[in-house]
Amino acid sequence: MGAFLLPAFFLGQVRAECPLPATLPLAQVARVVDGDTLRLADGRSVRLIGINTPEMGHRGRADEPGAKAARDRLQALVKENGGKVAIRPGAEPHDRHGRTLAHVYTPQGRNIEAILLGEGLGFQVVVPPNDALWACHAAAERSARQVGLGVWRGFSPRPVASLEQAGFAIVSGRIQRIDRNRGGTWIDLEGGLVLQVRQADAHLFEGSLRSLRTGQAVEARGWIVDRRRRSDQASGQAPWLLRLTSPTMLELLSSAAKVVPSNP
Fold first, then answer.
1. pLDDT digits (tens, 9 = 90+) for 104-114
2. What's the CATH fold of domain 2-151?
3. What is the SS3 assignment for 243-264?
């Protein structure tokens, strides 16, 4: 078990179900692309907020383990509701690919991201300002992880030293050095990964970064950036970068119960 950086209350006190905030219009689904993406009949491509499911294979690459299970479950949820879902766009409504970022519900008001997370079919991700359901998503993921469902079956975070490519990952490592400058807080982990909290995001952590110490073991999740081929990479710079945008992306590895921030 680990501890998030900002203690507030135990996850056990958070409901795994995410209540529907209000009546939402229903939309017709044309196609399920993968475990976290839908194509609607009106042409919109919808990326589910709060979850990252294993990637389906393309361009000759094989499916990641669990990708087909996540897609099939999302297809089943859509089919059993007549192909209709309720869409709640996020505070930031689109991503850089032009997709609609949204929470998706069944017509009965069940949050589909929470269902998938609770069945171990994906990993929680929190990217402010689209963090309205972070608490119930965290509780859903925790319930699946505790019993080893789906992606959590036999799971252990990847050691930093084993990184080979960019992309989403959950990694573990020990803090080697902590630097602070105008670019934010830089947490170097043994093995060649640096975690960055930009100065603009520092307020989200409410000063808890100052409690970090060298030698501590941590688990971090997010999208790894490969800096080895960048022309501006400085000599001796860590080859891998992971930007932390929420305290939920970093946990101290300890015997303590997992606690979470009140506002990631």
1. 999 999 999 99
2. OB fold (Dihydrolipoamide Acetyltransferase, E2P) (2.40.50)
3. ECCCHHHEEEECCCCCEECCCC
